[in-house]
């Protein structure tokens, strides 16, 4: 609960899903990453440099800026491809959502595993539409491009609000806050999940989970 | 807490095992000496003789399918409790480490901290650690909202008479049935059960916030209630047996030892819900109610029925004479006890006599119901209007008994609860599912950093104030949105007084300061600077019995002067305390204001220290002399002298101040509603089967302001005549058929909530904003920051 939640909604055509999602996710991660920390002796640290690069989209009139880290790019691409496949296979009316959740880890005693406490959740709701002819597709390209531009500005506004960010950790606690597995960039700990929703807005897994939780609550 | 839970688990095992043992492994014939036991060495029958040998015992158990079934069910239940217990242990551990590490309170010091201090520390660490990331600073109201989220909803629902807990029974008249079992079921249905309205602990499911498919949601809720009712019905025998056994094991010893304790009274569950403020913690509520306990018992006891007294005296005489004979015989020769049934008859006669004695009133009791009712009001803060001035009537007393019931009645209701609850759920609650859905949709507000809370709990006078309760002109609420009985206003004052550091929103600040100023003026007006007197009697007496006590406060407290002296004489009498409390409170009120004379206050404060109960006048006199200047309250900000008092004392002062404010508000409301009597008093109907009998015509005839939450007895001959016309009016002009109870109608014409609005009332009301045409509107979430 103690977690900021932002929702972005986009209507896309089938081919645009990959790139649109990539652009949004990369934008968010750009602002939520730093260079690698190099800890020095007295508890201070220096931050490595991070480069940025522009990426063009083929199916949308849009260019976005992302962190120039191929590893990160690979990870995000994989997640987006998974989501797209799930969306394609689901057979529903093409609605789904993908969430990028930034969390902090809290070490727990045995026998409980470590807890992940989210502090910010970005949810991107995707609605896939099918367009009939080329002209509509052209209009769609431009419109989606504009829309994405607006969304990027939205994201930046939210991030600029200077609200809660986890405190900078000491060396021993770096792994609780940052994802140190990448070689050239260090984003906050994040995870990407997705949900293919049916018309009522629920999904089977959440219902089952809730049922079990509720009976325990009795 | 931990220990309590461990013992609960042990108790469960014990009850089941003991009962099974008693049912199967004891040879009662030997116990009752009906069978002869062969003993070689002694002729005494010992307890182990009565126990059957283990193999016989276990064979009997195994053969008895019913017992096996019960044991299986209890075993499953016990395992479930065990798991919950282990989970709770982990939660408690976390709480403990939060206290030690974050709040820096060690466990040894914890019993001595007040809630206010804990709260202050939480607010401090929020600034430092940001435990809530949505806002920079937490306020007291946020903390209360988080703790009391669901309780506020329940208080609001009872306040708006949404839950079916009042019934009109054929012989018993109006009665209230609200037990722990029913409460548990309500919470299960609304808040945390499977498929409940709340998605998780802090937010309502989003489909319930939109008006689009309310009918479908109401259907869903209705069927869910049906399933839960059926589940209750199926489990009813098991629960019933458990309740009976538990009551038997708990209370028999009490009955034997102190039979009069069952005649004692306690605040009923309904009473606690009705009298609870919004945003009032459990311990605050209990302390308030406990303070009013003595006066309430006195009030209930001072009604005597001469007929019953005479009968009780005579029964006690006859029983007592038989008992005396038996006791005398026993003293003479104790072998009498060995005779069959002597001991049991002695016990039964003793119990009977004690019960009879409880019906015989105290000879030295004075009948002063109005006075007592005022004192009770000072503590419980809520009272239906038609009790004022009618304290001596039996109807008032019977209605008060709904709030303050016999312990025996409480136990009886708990025993009957498993049987009655399913029927209430299936037949009464289902009818109200549409209203409930509307209630949750209309009155849920999302507060940043807190989640979804009841909008009544915001204590916003503009949104939910009642014009008859000092919010005339300030409130924009329609009748559907107003909180009854002045709950908004009184809760606001209570919260502001208990949490003086809280910064209310602007209009509320205005309301609070206005009210405080008025009360202040009254309090000081009634006590012009008297010269300090040494004698307790004269000083307080002069306080109360000036030639014409002009102030409202003095008006409230002054009884006939003889009464005042009578009460003054008694040690620790309630009225004495209250009057002293008023004088202390008045002086405290005066010195509470932060102004240029605060330095003067501080100087004079050491002299007007915490007055001891035996020197009330000296202290009061000193306080009055010390604060010679008349104080004008501007606002309730923290004042200079607060830092000198511990928060314990502060809370005591706070409760006195709140009592004064509550009394004042009730007086204002009474005056205001008397003035409005010429207008047609609107009465809100409850939509259950008893609502047919309550009419506006009868009210106008009765000429007394009626509270909207207490039904009152109507004379039956007026019912028939008024039924037709009022029912027509009730449905706001739509000519619905008069037959049948108010089944909830699925027409869009029916106002939301099933409540009608009178068109004759002069009061302004907008048509309830949510009509059926609103299907497409965006969710009604108000963001309150």
Question: If you had to describe this structure to a student in words, what would you say it looks like?
Answer:
The complex is a heterodimer of chains A (218) and B (785). Chain A is of the alpha+beta class. Helices cover 37% and strands 29% of the residues of chain A. Chain A is built from five helices and ten strands, in the order βαβββββαββααββα. In chain A, helix 1 (17-31) packs parallel to helix 3 (134-160). The relative contact order of chain A is 0.23. With 785 residues, chain B is mainly alpha-helical. Among the domains of chain B are: 1-113; 459-521 and 648-668, no CATH class. The interface between A and B is medium-sized, with 16 and 22 residues.
Secondary structure layout plus pairing:
The complex is a heterodimer of chains A (218) and B (785).
Chain A: E1 4-13, H1 17-31, E2 33-34, E3 37-39, E4 45-47, E5 52-56, E6 63-67, H2 70-90, E7 95-106, E8 115-129, H3 134-160, H4 174-177, E9 186-187, E10 190-196, H5 204-217
Parallel strand pairs in A: 1-8
Antiparallel strand pairs in A: 2-9, 3-4, 5-6, 7-8, 7-10
Helix pairs in contact in A: 1-2, 1-3
Chain B: H1 2-24, H2 28-31, H3 47-50, H4 54-63, H5 65-102, H6 115-129, H7 140-147, H8 149-159, E1 166-169, E2 173-176, H9 180-192, E3 198-200, E4 203-204, H10 214-257, E5 265-267, H11 269-275, H12 282-291, H13 293-301, H14 306-332, H15 342-359, H16 369-380, H17 394-403, E6 404-406, H18 407-429, H19 433-442, E7 444-447, E8 451-454, H20 461-464, H21 487-498, H22 506-526, H23 536-544, H24 552-557, H25 561-569, H26 574-592, H27 598-604, H28 616-626, H29 647-675, H30 696-702, H31 716-730, E9 783-784
Parallel strand pairs in B: 7-9
Antiparallel strand pairs in B: 1-2, 3-4, 5-6, 7-8
Helix pairs in contact in B: 1-5, 9-18, 10-18, 10-19, 13-16, 14-15, 16-29, 21-29, 23-28, 26-28, 26-29
